[in-house]
Amino acid sequence: KRLPPGSLGFPIIGQSLSMLRAMKANKAEEWLQERVRKYGPISKLNLFGTPTVFLHGPAANKFIYTCSEKLMANKQPASIRRIIGERNILELSGDDHRRVRAALVSFLKPETLKQYVGRIDEEIRFHLKNHWYGNNEIKVMPLMKSLTFNVICSLLFGIERGPRRDTLVKLFEEAMEGVLSVPINFPFTVFNGSLKASEKIKSIIMELIHDKREKLEKNGVSSNEDLIMSLLSMKDETSDSHVLSDDEIVDNIFVVMVAGHDTTSILLTFLIKLLADNPTVYNLVLKEQEEISRGKALGELLAWEDLAKMKYTWKVAMESLRINPPVFCSFRTVLQDIEYGEYIIPKGWQVIWASCMTHMDENIYSEPTKFNPLRLESQATSPPPYSFMAFGGGPRMCPGYEFARIETLTMIHNLVNAFAWKLSLKDNFFGRNPMPVFHQGLPVQIQLKKSSDAIQIYQF
Ligand code: HEM
User: Fold this and answer.
1) Which pLDDT does position 137 carry in this prediction?
2) Which partner from 34, 160, 230, 238 sits 20 to 30 angstroms from 383, CA to CA?
3) What is the top-level taxon of the source organism (predicted)?
């Protein structure tokens, strides 16, 4: 058995800068395709200070998602670990991972979230009134980021609108800049700036924990009012001790901030673009959403049951995720030498794979660059297992799927019912940092629909 083909490049830096440059120029898929052409579906390289093996294809996806925890752990690159924290779910494995995941899922599961659909709808209407109503043009990407951040602040962290939220937004952007960087902590480096922002974010979360604990003790009852309250209320049935330590709550609230807001904002941004580019799809989505509005009183908020009727709209969202998955690549760390085909992946190395590569494989999806929401519906063309990777897979599959679905469907329902829009620019260039970023924010010209419903709901 031997090492996979490829070069490890220069020590520490390896191919990191070359890959980051390709990501910034939105050429990362081509960069990876070039590797596959040169070396095949498995090759070695050096990323973010660690020797790495890149794997490609559904068989590789299956291998990673079903691999024993004894062979592969979910350790992230050092930059992510140091910014978010050692006890965040992405770093944990075995019983620790199951315990923290179960605690998060007990709030993120449909049975809990279904009662919050109306609250998310309210936050979205507030956003539309404040940022869309009365304007002729808006920039979609920054607005979607602020919307999804506000939704998680309200629902998951119970942070009221105001200075604390505003400070968090700014710090959060600074922290995110260095999540994929060479982890050298010199003054004025991006990584150094991100570490400083991360410290401030953590002290804000710690303050929140103290405030909420006081509130819980005063009331003397457990609470599902928001995710932090829910985590603080959780006790082990046998020992009566808290399920998560304060440090674990801080690191995992941080990870939910990262995982929960950027991803959905990117999905919404691409959806708005795809709907502008595809009038037929926009009209079909509108038809589905108008049908739902007809069954409701004027101004009545959406409920869980309404979301089940938005089947076509969700297919459109899934097709958007196939073409533009927000999470570009994922990492695991090898704990023992692993044999993969004719190669060996040594202990201590990283494994990396990229969903976009599988999603754009024409052997799986015919005409992969074509936006076709119905392709995920038909039995004949539905993708084989481990071929749709936007939410990951296996025991680490995204636990925020339902939250993202509620938020996305509720926003699209409100948008198509109230507004028509078209892209302001012909070219809307985006790069990855590591999430996609539209350089000009995706400006669109918008028009409030003339219907009396839209005017009554979305005007002040
Ligand atoms: C469109 C929206 C979203 C997408 C595309 C997405 C994608 C993903 C992917 C691909 C993974 C797995 C990464 C891996 O295997 O290494 C993941 C994990 C995760 N996601 Fe999401 N996500 C989304 C929304 C959310 C939301 C809204 C939340 C929370 C409110 C969330 C919380 C998490 C957490 C905590 C994990 C780690 C799970 C674990 O390690 O057990 N995500 N997500």
Assistant:
1) 98
2) 34
3) Eukaryota
User: What is the residue-averaged pLDDT of the chain?
Assistant: 91
Per the structure block, which two tokens stand in for 212? 């909420």
Tell me the ipTM for this assembly: 0.99
Q: Is the dihedral of CA 137, 139, 140, 146 positive or negative?
A: negative
Residues whose CB is less than 8 angstroms from the CB of residue 201 and which lie 6 or more positions away in sequence, other chains included: 168, 171, 172, 175, 254, 257
Residue 162 CA to ligand 1 center (angstroms) comes to 27
Pocket lining: 326 vs ligand 1, CB cutoff 6 Å: yes
Query: In sequence order, what are the residues at sequence separation of 6 or more whose Cβ sits closer than 8 angstroms to the Cβ of residue 240?
Result: none
d(CA 49, CA 184): 10
Would you put residue 36 in left (φ > 0), alpha (ψ -120 to 50) or beta?
A: alpha
Q: Dump pLDDT digits (tens) for 384-425.
A: 889 999 999 999 999 999 999 999 999 999 999 999 999 999
Q: What is the mean pLDDT of residues 330-350?
A: 94
What would the 3-class secondary structure string for 21-83 be?
HHHHCCCHHHHHHHHHHHHCCEEEEEECCEEEEEECCHHHHHHHHHCCCCCEECCCCHHHHHH
- Condensed to tens digits (0 to 9), the pLDDT of residues 5-60 reads 999 988 888 999 999 999 999 999 999 999 999 999 999 999 988 999 999 999 99
* Rounded-to-integer distance, Cα 35 and Cα 409, Å: 37
Strand partners, 45: 52
Strand partners, 422: 445
The residues near 280 (Cβ < 8 Å, ≥ 6 apart) are none
Q: What angle do CA 85, 215, 226 make, to 5 degrees?
A: 55
Q: Which residues pair with 34 in a beta bridge?
A: none
Q: Which two tokens stand for residue 300?
A: 């009545």
- Identity of the amino acid at 181: S
Find out whether the beta carbon of 151 lies less than 6 Å from any atom of ligand 1. no
Nearest to 173 by CA among 147, 138, 208, 201: 201
Query: Of ligand 1's atoms, which has the minimum distance to the CA of residue 397?
Result: 12
Ligand 1 binding pocket includes 393 (Cβ within 6 Å): no
- Quote the percentage of the chain above a pLDDT of 90: 69
Domains and CATH numbers, the chain: 16-458 (1.10.630.10)
Residue-level pLDDT at 380: 61
- Confirm or deny that 356 is annotated as ligand binding: no
